[in-house]
Amino acid sequence: MRLFFVFCTIAFFAFTSTLQAEPPKEVRDLIRSHSQQIAEIEKQYQADLDSLLETYKEKEDTETVNLLTRLKEEANPSANATAPIRYWTWQSGGDLVLKSNGEAYHTEWTRGGNWSLYDDGSIRLSGPTGVFRITFEDGVGHVLHLAKGGTTTIVPKEPGA
């Protein structure tokens, strides 16, 4: 008898737990509606970012283009993290590629480096030849070698150019 009681108790709790696993239809509908609304807002946000990105590319406003590119990447983290996102021609020689995962490559470097954004929108670039700070004015990046004090400029370069 005791074994039968234990069996019935286990069966009862197993049965009631499966009943509670499925939320009521109203709750499921609310969750589905919420997910759809979030997806629509995210889709509209991406479209608005794309529109602004094209506008500022036409104006050749590199600072704003880089900001919008970063916002677009943050809003869509599933994008390929190793894809090149910024190409620059280094005026003192070579090309610089900044990737969305923080990696940096320069044609004159023997190995890669890394980069990150400062709060003011400037870039910290670290590579085998030193650490640099890049600030932007009128679409031109002004590069300062932090240890040696040397300067150069970088200008945007179209991929494949």
Distinctive features:
8 strands; 29% strand; eight-stranded antiparallel beta barrel; 3 helices; 42% helix; 2 domains; 161 residues
Structure explained in plain terms:
There is one protein chain. With 161 residues, the protein is of the alpha+beta class. It folds into two domains: 2-50; 81-156. The chain contains three helices and eight strands. The protein has helices at residues 2-21, 25-58, 62-75; strands at residues 84-90, 95-99, 103-106, 113-117, 123-127, 130-137, 140-145, 151-156. It has an eight-stranded antiparallel β-barrel with strand order 1-2-3-4-5-6-7-8. The longest helix has 34 residues, at 25-58. It starts with a helix and ends in a 5-residue tail after the last strand. Residues 77-83 have low confidence and may be disordered.
Question: Percent range for helical residues?
Answer: 40-55%
Q: How many helices? A: 3
Strand content: 25-35%
The mean pLDDT is 77
Biggest sheet overview: 8 strands, antiparallel, barrel
Distance between the termini: 84 Å
Inertia-based shape: elongated
Number of β-strand runs: 8
Query: Spans of 5+ residues with little confidence (pLDDT < 50)?
Result: 77-83
Question: SSE string, helix = H, strand = E?
Answer: HHHEEEEEEEE
Structural class: alpha+beta
Number of domains as seen in the coordinates: 2
Radius of gyration: 27 Å
Which strand order does the major sheet show? 1-2-3-4-5-6-7-8
Quaternary class:
single chain
